[in-house]
Specification:
The protein is of the alpha/beta class. The chain has 7 helices and 7 strands, in the order βαβαβαβββααβαα. The radius of gyration is 17 Å and the shape is globular.
């Protein structure tokens, strides 16, 4: 069975961040293990929103709605082409940066990622069969994030977004207390991300399904 097609999404608006280093090593190791890796870097790649694209957000969308902008349509297709998506982002104000929220709002769209049913309150998950990995950096201690923020960033992305559209998260990594960390600790986190990339490249669909996190 061929290695998975992995989409890496870097949700940090500034280049050269620790998130970029984590994602770079993850992608490098995954490629060396045979995976096809596509990278969306929201620090440098086109932003999906603009003043004339508000219709993209309409739910549900139908054939009479304006076409998606080229940038949004490209991102939608890259998500659909992926078997596995790896997210890297920092925790800012207890959640993820606006640049990642904007990308999710513009790309994880009604009619593309999920669709409401004509009757009742149910919906169809249109991105089933895909898995995800989440890596979040933060300056706060893990206990503070859990008790005070209630792990809001992870809950929002993992459950309210990915689960809702059928993407199952296989693992979550929280790199805590970054501001006060040593170079050795950051290097260890980067090495860990590389190992995760190599491991994800080796996962078959059955293994990815069996490793879905709780």
């Amino acid at each position: 069975m061929s290695a998975p097609r992995i989409l890496v999404v870097i949700g940090h608006p500034l280049p050269g961040s620790l998130n970029h280093a984590l994602a770079a090593n993850y992608a490098k190791e995954a490629r060396e293990a045979g995976a096809a890796v596509d990278i969306i870097d929201l620090a440098t790649d086109p932003r999906p929103g603009h003043p004339e694209a508000h219709a993209d957000l309409q739910a549900p969308r139908d054939a009479g709605d304006p076409a998606l902008t080229p940038v949004v349509a490209d991102y939608v297709e890259r998500v659909r082409a992926a078997d596995h998506i790896a997210f890297f982002f920092p925790q800012w104000w207890g959640t993820y940066p606006a640049v990642l929220a904007e990308w999710l709002n513009r790309v994880i769209l009604a009619g593309e990622s999920f669709s409401y049913r004509n009757k009742g309150k149910g919906w169809d998950k249109l991105l089933t069969g895909r898995t995800a990995r989440i890596t979040m950096t933060m300056d706060s201690p893990s206990a503070w994030n859990r008790l005070m923020y209630r792990d809001a960033a992870i809950r929002t992305l993992k459950t309210a977004t990915l689960w809702y559209v059928g993407i199952k998260t296989i693992d979550v990594t929280r790199v805590a207390e970054v501001r006060a960390s040593t170079l050795a600790k950051r290097d260890k986190a980067i090495a860990t991300a590389g190992g995760q990339g190599r491991a994800d490249a080796a996962l078959t669909p059955a293994l990815r399904e069996s490793r879905v996190s709780a």
